[in-house]
Amino acid sequence: MVAALVQAAGDSPIGTALSLAVPSEYSHLIQKAGRTCPEVSPNLLAALLSTESNFNPKAQSPVGAQGIAQFMPSTWESHGIDANGDGRRDVWDPEDAIPSSAKYLCTIAKEVADVPGDKQQNMLAAYNAGSGAVRQYGGVPPYKETQGYVRAITDLANQPTNGGSGGAATVVNAAKAMIGTPYSWGGGDANGPSTGSCCSPNGHSGGDIKGFDCSGLTLYAYSKVGIYLPRTAAEQYAASEPVEPGDVRPGDLVFYGSSASGIHHVGIYVGNGWMIDAPRPGKNVRYSPLDTMPDLYGVARPHKKKEI
């Protein structure tokens, strides 16, 4: 069951439901900066910005990454440029940050140019995990988050940048925007991350952590399309229609457990056998493969009747 579902899910690329809708105010910047070097294209740059910040120029991650391209301050200090010529290098200004992102991609592409494998994928992996990690492992490093990051951007980049987004894209983009948010047992609601409660089956408390647990994340993402899910993973499965392996689509919910009443985990499918989930205490919201747990129970799609 698990192997068949993972294989079938992998046949449906993320781009099927995530045709990129680039905000009009950034389209010309992306078109121009996306031709900085052969390894960067406008589609790839748009996919990276969508994944990093969902095109939010004021985005700030829990670890301190800033702006539409999510530069860490030290990286911006060494690689940010005054692209619009106003005399300031401003990480919060897309007119500086988008060209700086393309220039930085081209710089790290040169740094890993002699590493075996796909040059674009190695470049993206270096953007996420650092050039040193790519060189150390001779390609995309064996980090689940980095592998999911590379796969998601690559698939998304292969789709037109002017397509419609749709409800599934809204759900997935809402979850993507929360990548890096801490896990908090009982945390998260329709308004976003929140402090959780005590205690998980292993005694972990979310009372002093602002973030999401698995079902809090899915509840939040689906609220963005007006579907208000119940609080627990098992209740969310009961509020959804099971999906056959051959019909799995981005935005569907992936459930884990030994039975419908014993479901203990849920994530949001994003394509090619990957999901976004809040995995467990001590971890952050991330990309995870569907076989990250051995008890994958099934995939389901929330009922439309749950809309309010």
From TrEMBL:
Keywords: Hydrolase, Protease, Thiol protease. CDD domains: Slt35-like. InterPro entries: Lysozyme-like_dom_sf, NLP_P60_dom, Papain-like_cys_pep_sf, PG_Endopeptidase_C40, Transglycosylase_SLT_dom_1. Gene3D superfamilies: 1.10.530.10, endopeptidase domain like (from Nostoc punctiforme) (3.90.1720.10). The keyword Transmembrane helix does not apply. Residues 165-308 form the NlpC/P60 domain. Belongs to the peptidase C40 family. This is NlpC/P60 family protein. It comes from Streptomyces antimicrobicus. The lineage of its organism: Bacteria, Bacillati, Actinomycetota, Actinomycetes, Kitasatosporales.
